[in-house]
Design a protein that fits this description.
There is one protein chain. This protein is 32% helix and 22% strand. The protein has four helices and six strands, in the order αααββββββα. Strands 1, 2, 3, 4, 5 and 6 form a six-stranded antiparallel beta sheet that branches. It is elongated and about 55 Å long.
Length: 170
């Protein structure tokens, strides 16, 4: 199923690539600058597609996202089932999930990578919580104030690790 999703996303990305205008290569390679559109297309990887948003002519309002933040968000939220991911707008939404230790409480997370930079301002996380009432229906419940910030910190830490690992490997 995962391969089917990846294949469908890849096919959609190729189909959408023809919808925009001509893309001009940026002056600086993104792997050296920490984000933005990939400059060396011959050495680009499939994961670099997420960095090709508004970098050239006719991006259509797409936001370029930092590939390290994107990957780190997926890694950090991997314990929750994914509802949707859109690398072109930078949104990762999970589905509701309950812990076996607390079956009457469930959480859902939305992460938004808003920029090609690897900074705290480039990431926004929202956490939603529901609990069962006496009738067994799910009702919205407050989330501890530090929860979203802790997830953002974990994602940022993982993104920095990925960037350092990439630099050491390259």
């Amino acid at each position: 199923m995962s391969h089917l999703r990846i294949g469908a996303a890849f096919a959609a990305a190729i189909a959408l690539a023809g919808c925009g205008g001509t893309v001009t290569a940026p002056k600086e390679d993104a792997r050296n600058s920490g984000g933005g559109a990939a400059g060396n297309y011959e050495n680009s990887r499939v994961t670099d597609m997420i960095d090709l948003g508004a970098g050239g002519g006719g991006g259509g309002g797409l936001t370029p996202v930092n590939r390290h933040l994107w990957r780190a968000s997926l890694d950090t939220l991997s314990y929750l089932p994914l509802a949707s991911t859109d690398p072109f707008t930078g949104v990762i939404a999970t589905d509701w999930a309950a812990s076996p230790d607390a079956p009457n409480e469930r959480f859902k997370v939305t992460a938004f990578v808003r920029s090609p930079e690897l900074t705290a301002q480039a990431l926004q996380v929202a956490v939603y919580r529901e609990v069962r009432d006496e009738a067994g229906a799910w009702v919205t419940a407050p989330v501890a104030g530090a929860t979203a910030r802790q997830l953002e910190d974990a994602i940022l830490l993982r993104a920095r690790q990925l960037k350092l690992g990439e630099r050491q490997a390259g």
